[in-house]
Amino acid sequence: DQGLDFSRRLAEGGRRIIAPSRFGYLRSDYPADPSSQNQADAFVDLLDHLGIDKLPVLGGSAGALSAIEFALRHPDRCSALIALVPASYTPGRPRTPGPSGLQEAVMQEVLGSDFLFWLGLQTIPSRMIGTLLATDPGLVDAAAPVERERVRAILWNILPVSRRSRGLLNDAKLASNPAPMELERIAAPTLAVSLDDDRFGTAAAARHLANTVPGARLVVYPTGGHVWVGRDRELFAEVGAFMASL
Predict the structure, then answer these.
(1) What is the Cα 245 distance to its own chain's centre?
(2) Contacts for 144-150: CB closer than 8 Å, 24+ residues apart
(3) DSSP designation for 58
(4) What are the Cα distances from residue 114, in Å, to 23, 142, 158?
(5) Is the pTM value of this prediction over 0.85?
(6) Phi, psi of 140, rounded to the nearest 5 degrees
(7) Distances (CA, A) of 151 to 15, 19, 34, 125, 146
(8) Are 164 and 157 in contact (CB under 8 A)?
(9) Among 74, 143, 200, 226, which residue carries the largest CB count within 10 Å?
(10) pLDDT tens string 21-33
(11) In which element (H, E) is residue 194 found?
């Protein structure tokens, strides 16, 4: 549901969108190996089931990890790669220490409780925008009403968080210390997009991706945070133009 919401502008432009729930989200299983590589292989199983030979893959944030792996592991099935605010490897990035046992227990408790998550949305929305969405709450306050509503919907549509908790926790682990990938092997046309003030630091990852993938295109906006506040129409116009050029 989140993938469909994020890509609605592409759908409005006539594109068919296939938005799988990745491991641990909603009704999807959570296998013993929930790695980005295994997720990419599962995408191929889905395409086989749907009778689709080849298509562009778009992944955002931690979802960009499995999208990149799809382009690497299954080049015959990937016609293009689009990485939005990618939570992928950046050279020289300090290793992020994992959460302590207490911190992990708190995260599991909050992400496993729809009530606690709802309470946070009601009482500390700015803090949740700043932490969960890695975006300056002041940007949201100053944005147009339609953009304020879009950001609000992103947060509220995480509910029921209890049916996404395993996926969210797995993504947090994968994105906290992403491994280097052989990006130079990617043959598909590639677009990397990020924003300089993304608090997750994905602008550096997007630049590394664009500098390493042969012929890749890079777009970095100065402001907008992790959820590109005030840039939604502009960003997806860029994505649409890239896809139309293929």
Answers:
(1) 23
(2) 144/230, 147/229, 147/230, 147/232, 150/227, 150/232
(3) E
(4) 19, 29, 9
(5) yes
(6) -65, -45
(7) 23, 20, 28, 11, 9
(8) no
(9) 226
(10) 999 999 999 999 9
(11) strand 190-195
| Structure token pair of residue 192 | 């990397």
pLDDT digits (tens, 9 = 90+) for 95-110: 655 555 666 677 778 7
The pLDDT score that the predictor gives to residue 97 is 54
pLDDT score of 196:
98
Nearest in space to 152 (alpha carbons), one of 208, 227, 98, 90 = 227
* pLDDT bracket for residue 63 (50, 70, 90): very high
pLDDT at 70: 98
Average pLDDT over residues 220-228: 98
Rounded to an integer, what distance in angstroms lies between the CA atom of residue 59 and that of residue 3? 9
Two structure tokens written together for 65: 């990890």
Coil, strand or helix at 224: coil
Q: Which residues contact 44 (CB under 8 A, 6 or more apart)?
A: 70, 74, 77
